[in-house]
Amino acid sequence: MKLLVVIDMQNDFITGSLGTKEAQEILPRVVQKVKDFDGCVFYTQDSHHSDYLKTQEGKLLTTLHCIYGTNGWEIPNKLEVAIRPKANHKIIKDTFGSEYLPYTIRKLWRLDGEDEIELCGVCTDICVISNALLLKTFFPEVKISVDASCCAGTTPEAHETALKAMKQCQIYIENVNEDEDQNLPHCCTCSHCGYNYTGVNNDEPPRLTCKLGIKSNLNFSTKSCKKYKET
Questions:
Q1: Predicted confidence band of residue 112 (pLDDT cuts 50, 70, 90)
Q2: Which strands sit side by side in the sheet containing 186-189, from one edge to the other?
Q3: Which of 21, 57, 124, 129 could cross-link to 159 by cystine, CB 3.0-4.6 Å?
């Protein structure tokens, strides 16, 4: 089973008070991804109220956004039309990560290592990473992945930094463009002792001796490498 989670693709994060050109650019790709997805779609909506500026988040991020019931809170019509015919679940949340997201998934399905939860949306460095790490914590044996081509950060630099952080936490980063891929760590985990190694790109996998003294060819998660350093 594969589930798709669309994070906070709302007007205020696309064209509104916290909108970015990168979010506008990914919108058609997210719409197409939802249309093509054969499975259950979850989508989150960031939701605040008139007291937002009095909250901790509001004191640190002082731009009003996603006020419940406003146009900025809504998801774009094209995306709503794509989601509507799917089996779907709306998750209303008032902070970066939603505890209801993993609870709802766990209530509906008993997931295991054959399953996958894929995320896309905005902002990569705030709500996408928060929910990806929550899901990884709740479902450590389930493949958690993020479609980088369908995500946008508060800035391109923040987007890239978040992808790096998620990859270090064993979240699979899919559809990374060539420039991003150059900067992401290439990691593998020894199947014998669980030790992580990080390397640089090359043509052949390394032959390493793990902590238990067992020699193994370890393939890196994105590309093979020969030179490596221990993390």
A1: confident
A2: 186-189, 196-199, 228-230
A3: 124
Share of the chain residues as helix, strand and coil, in percent rounded to the nearest 5:
35, 25, 40
Residues 151, 26 contacting (CB under 8 angstroms): yes
The pLDDT of residue 220: 39
Q: Is pLDDT at 204 greater than 80 in this prediction? A: no
What are the residue ranges spanned by the domains of the chain? 2-183, 186-230
pLDDT in tens, 80-105: 999 999 989 999 999 999 999 999 99
CATH homologous superfamily of 2-183: Isochorismatase-like (3.40.50.850)
Q: Are 83 and 36 in contact (CB under 8 A)?
A: no
Smallest CA-to-CA distance from 5 within 164, 168, 128, 124 is with: 128
HSE on the CB side for 189, CA within 13 Å? 8
Burial environment of residue 156 by CB neighbours within 10 A (0 to 12, 13 to 18, 19 or more): middle
Helix runs in 109-230, H state only: 129-138, 156-168, 178-183
Q: What do you get for the CA distance between the two ends of the chain, in Å?
A: 33
66: left (phi over 0), alpha (psi -120 to 50) or beta: left
- Please state at what angle helix 100-108 crosses helix 129-138, rounded to 10 degrees: 40
Q: What is the pLDDT of residues 160-201, one digit of tens each?
A: 999 999 999 999 999 987 555 555 444 454 444 444 444 434
Question: Can you give the pTM of this predicted structure?
Answer: 0.77
What six digits make up the tokens of 194? 């669980």
